[in-house]
Amino acid sequence: MAMFSKELGIDLGTMFTRLADTNQVMLEEPTIVAIELDPNRMAEKMVAYGQEARDMVGRVPESIEVARPLKNGVIADYEVTQTLLAHLIRRASGSLRFVRPRVMISIPYGVTSVERRAVYEAVMEAGAHEANLIPQPLAAALGIDLPIGSPSGNMVICLGGGCTEAAVLAMYGIVSADTLRVGGLELDEAIVTYVRRKYGVIIGQVTAELLKVRIGAAVPRDEEQSMEVQGQDQVTGLPRPVTLSTDEIAEALQDPLKQIMESCRRVLEKTPPELVSDIIDRGVAICGGGALLRGVDKLLTKSLGVPAYLVDNPLTCVVEGAAKGIPMYNVLRRSLPQV
Predict the structure, then answer these.
(1) Which end of the chain has fewer CB atoms surrounding its CB within 10 Å, N or C?
(2) Does residue 49 sit within a domain?
(3) pTM for the full predicted model
(4) How many CA atoms lie within 13 A of 228 on its CB side?
């Protein structure tokens, strides 16, 4: 296992950051950091990152802040992102004294030049020898092994934690695409709001995510599952248990899911008719963490009128595609965003 790889693909996501070389995924850490605030020196010190920091969410004193440095797929806190990337790149490629890796890093489709520049600078500062950016839908299509080199239409939908991207690809390029800044975090928020309105109980984002993963569904299911969670009573402020069922979660998620369906529909509307007929034959590939929500493929099939299927590697296809993209740089060059 060549741990000291010269070429790294990076999927810098709102929820998770993954690193891969051309053979396998090497690292996967939640994109989250714990920072110790020093009020006297106005300095910030990173206490923990990744899984360790994620376990601290909502469970820390005021002197420590747990933050996600990315919002909706783009960098919100530059310095923290750069430190996090430096730690991860160092872990993946050993000490950087001898060899600095070539990196291809994914960015959401259609971000502004400032947001692109921030990602590029952060990776270069973090210890990359050279860096190229690749739009997420293109990286996902490469990771899923879709035949995007041919003049026929392929559609990919990435349901990420911070944003949702739908794109139609042909000839190694993106024909039409749309990025919606609604993702898994908004689904969690919707569950928090629903529980607060219906039961008068406040739950945290971590609990909401657990509900979504364990019993959540995009459409009401035949087999009912339920789960009890502890929350805080809105009136008394004391702990109180609530039991929620799959149908309730499905109801809570209706609004954000509707926005996601609209976004995917818009992409199909913008697509040339020849490519649409290819997509109807091939189906739509769904990837990203949101793709694991039960029944999301059925919901997409119903609302788009095109069969949607879950890919084999929904979580890692973007990072695998980014790693595959490095040797294919010359072919992909015209569809990669310039910094």
Answers:
(1) N
(2) no
(3) 0.92
(4) 3
Same domain, 164 and 281: yes
**Same-domain status, 212 and 233:** yes
* Residues 292 and 196 occupy one common structural domain: no
In-domain check, residue 204: yes
pLDDT by 10s per residue, the chain, length 339? 445 558 899 999 999 999 998 888 999 999 999 998 877 766 678 889 999 999 998 888 988 889 899 999 999 999 899 999 999 988 887 765 667 889 999 999 999 999 999 999 999 999 888 999 999 999 999 999 999 999 999 999 999 999 999 999 999 999 999 999 999 999 999 999 999 999 999 999 999 999 999 999 999 988 889 999 999 999 999 999 999 999 999 999 999 999 999 999 999 999 999 999 999 999 999 999 999 999 999 999 999 999 999 999 999 999 999 999 999 999 999 989 888
Q: Where are the alpha helices (DSSP H) in 174-245?
A: 184-199, 205-215
Does residue 102 lie in a domain region?
yes
Same domain, 107 and 121: yes
Three-state DSSP at 332 gives: helix
Three-state DSSP string of 226-261: EEEEEEEECCCCCEEEEEEEHHHHHHHCHHHHHHHH
Handedness of CA 292, 279, 142, 126 (dihedral sign): negative
List the Cα angle 181/206/59 in 5-degree steps: 125
* Alpha helices (H) in 15-99, listed in sequence order: 51-54, 78-93
Which residues, 6 or more positions from 84, have their beta carbon under 8 angstroms from its beta carbon? 17, 31, 33, 46, 49, 69
CATH number at residue 169: 3.30.420.40
Within this chain, do residues 127 and 26 fall inside the same structural domain, yes or no? yes
Expressed as residue numbers, the domain containing 308 is: 152-181+257-316
